[in-house]
Amino acid sequence: MDNILQGEKVRLTAVTKDDLPAIARWYEDAAFGRLSDAAPAMPRSAEQWAKWLEEQQGDKNVFLFGIRPVNGNELLGYADINGILWTHGNGWIGIGLGDRGSWGKGYGREAMALILKFAFDELNLHRVQLTVFSYNERAIALYEKLGFTREGVYREHLLRDGRRYDMLLYGLLHREWAGHPPGIDTSDPGNNPN
After folding, report:
1. For the chain, what are the domain ranges?
2. What is the separation of C-alpha 33 from the centre of its chain, rounded to a whole number of angstroms?
3. Which of 82, 110, 120, 163 is within CB 3.0–4.6 Å of 62 for a Cys-Cys bond?
4. Which candidate, 162, 163, 15, places its Cα nearest to that of 98?
5. Contact by Cβ (8 Å): 66, 75
6. Predicted confidence pLDDT, tens digits, the chain (194 residues)
């Protein structure tokens, strides 16, 4: 059987308390925070992240993974499935690469393919969805390349630097993902931090 949590470049692992200082460092970068969250970009301490991690690990509707290189333990980012409605087979999916040195190397693309495979083939979800800010063009290109369909727009949802931006809703159904060949081609790494 295949290791569904490992690709050629990255693997999905548990997030541990040892990872919290790295996560705290990522959120000291306001640009990363603005790609990841509609809340104001602000640093949080490792202790605050410890509380968050405890909440995530205690929620049966959250599957949180660390993204690490295949041949190393450095935390590059995270991926998760959350807000699962088991009766309907729906869940939200998210990804973020906090280590800027890992951007543009295909890690995000491969991690996204792995988390989708987990969502559809291990959790047997019917649908996954995500939101992305209209200024995150690299992430939008990645999601569309992986087969996501733009389904809606939260118009002028964000105010950043005096300008309004939309938040886009994307969805992917299991049957649409099933049409992808196994082992998504990661030769075009793009330049996606998310």
Report:
1. 10-178
2. 13
3. 82
4. 15
5. yes
6. 578 899 999 999 999 889 988 888 888 888 888 888 887 777 888 788 888 888 888 888 899 999 999 999 999 999 999 999 999 999 999 999 987 888 889 999 999 999 999 999 999 999 999 999 999 999 999 999 999 999 999 999 999 999 999 999 999 999 999 766 445 443 333 434 44
CA-nearest of 82, 90, 87, 85 to 173 is 90
Q: Are 193 and 35 in contact (CB under 8 A)?
A: yes
Task: Determine how many CB atoms are found less than 10 A away from the CB of residue 106.
Answer: 21
CA distance 40 to 60: 28
Residues paired with 168 in a beta bridge: 132, 153
pTM of the prediction?
0.86
Q: Report the DSSP pairing between strands 90-97 and 127-133.
A: parallel
How far is the C-alpha of 96 from the C-alpha of 102, rounded, in Å?
11
CATH class name, domain 10-178: alpha beta
Given a contact cutoff of 8 angstroms between Cβ atoms, the answer to whether 135 and 165 are in contact is yes
